Each structure stands twice: as C-alpha cells, then as structure tokens.
Amino acid sequence: EADIYQTPRYLVIGTGKKITLECSQTMGHDKMYWYQQDPGMELHLIHYSYGVNSTEKGDLSSESTVSRIRTEHFPLTLESARPSHTSQYLCASTDTRNTEAFFGQGTRLTVV
Amino acid sequence: GIQVEQSPPDLILQEGANSTLRCNFSDSVNNLQWFHQNPWGQLINLFYIPSGTKQNGRLSATTVATERYSLLYISSSQTTDSGVYFCAGDYGGSQGNLIFGKGTKLSVKP
What we know:
The complex is a heterodimer of chains A (about 110) and B (about 110).
Chain A: E1 4-7, E2 10-13, E3 19-25, E4 31-37, E5 44-49, E6 56-57, E7 65-66, E8 76-78, E9 87-94, E10 102-103, E11 107-111
Parallel strand pairs in A: 2-11
Antiparallel strand pairs in A: 1-3, 3-8, 4-5, 4-9, 5-6, 7-8, 9-10, 9-11
Chain B: E1 4-7, E2 10-14, E3 19-25, E4 30-37, E5 43-48, E6 52-56, E7 59-64, E8 69-74, E9 83-90, E10 99-100, E11 104-109
C-alpha cells in the first residue's frame, strides 16, 4: 500500500508568516519531489531530493526551501509568505529506479 | 529538454461515451504514468505503463515507446470520470525527474 502524507490539507495565512508544509512517506523511497500547481494547470517541479542530505532546485524558481534529514520526511518551508505563493503544493516519491511515483493529497495554500 | 504534449486539452462527453486521450513525448521517456486529478486536487495513479497495454475496468492504456506516445482509453464514461488527466514520464538515469504534460480536462455530462 502506497502511503505518502501531506499536512495540512488546507492553510490560510497572513502575508509575512513563516510556514512549513509537511510530507512523509512510509515506502522507504529515496527520491522525493515537491510540485507547485495552480488549479487545473500543469505541475511545476520546484524541489527534489535523491536521499538524505540531498536537495536540488527544480525547473520552476521558488522562494521556498526544503530539507531531507530523514529518508521518510521532506518538509518545505516558506520563510515569509506572500500572496503570490497561493497555490497547491504536491509531494511525491519514487524509488531509486524511478519506478511508479506516488503523490500525497496536496496542501492548498492561500496567503492573504 | 524533454517535452510531454497531451491532447486534446479539453474534452466534453455525454455519459456513456468512449474517449481516447493521447500523450506524445519528444524523446525517449521511461516509466510513463497516467494520473487522474480529482476535484479535491489529489493525483490518483491510473497506470504505470512504460510499454505495452494494461487494462483496469473501463480504463485501459497503451504505450508505444519506440514511437514516443501513449494512449488512455475511457469506455462507457461516467460523471465521476470528470477531472484532469495527466501523463508523466522521466528521461532515465538515477537523476531523472518526472516531466508532466499540461493535462486533458475531461467533463462528463449526465
């Protein structure tokens, strides 16, 4: 059973606040990803990780940062949220062989 | 870089109709997947199909890797099939990352 969890599901915060979006997987996957998606639009890769202590920026520039201290955990942080960060954030994972990817339920972020 | 193109971008069907969604990719792509994004935004895995044909109920998919395309068939469509369908693939290697198409937005009318 594929298990990858994101919290919170929905978040409304004020401009300037610091937030962390959580993503955890129980499949032992080495690779993890964060995608940003506006409603009904394409997914843009913003961060990825090959394993512990590995993080890389994706194709879409993002003001967020990520960390990978444990295999199962890949949190995303915004130091100072702005209305332009309003979007859905999707976390995914695959194993090293890049087989089937699984996604969390997503976090819908609104910055007011 | 690798480009993944999906067609059609939008599709409206009457309940019970059949449809075919297409995914073309610009270079050799591994690990082709199809996803359905439900109204709550979650991406649901439909098929992991690097090559060949698979079927799951009313849905089936075919990937012809040598010709760089994949097809998703939906038969006897239902209103619950509505949503956005994405295909995605990676270009291989330990550092390959999933590249997504822009999606096909499907609306099934009762």
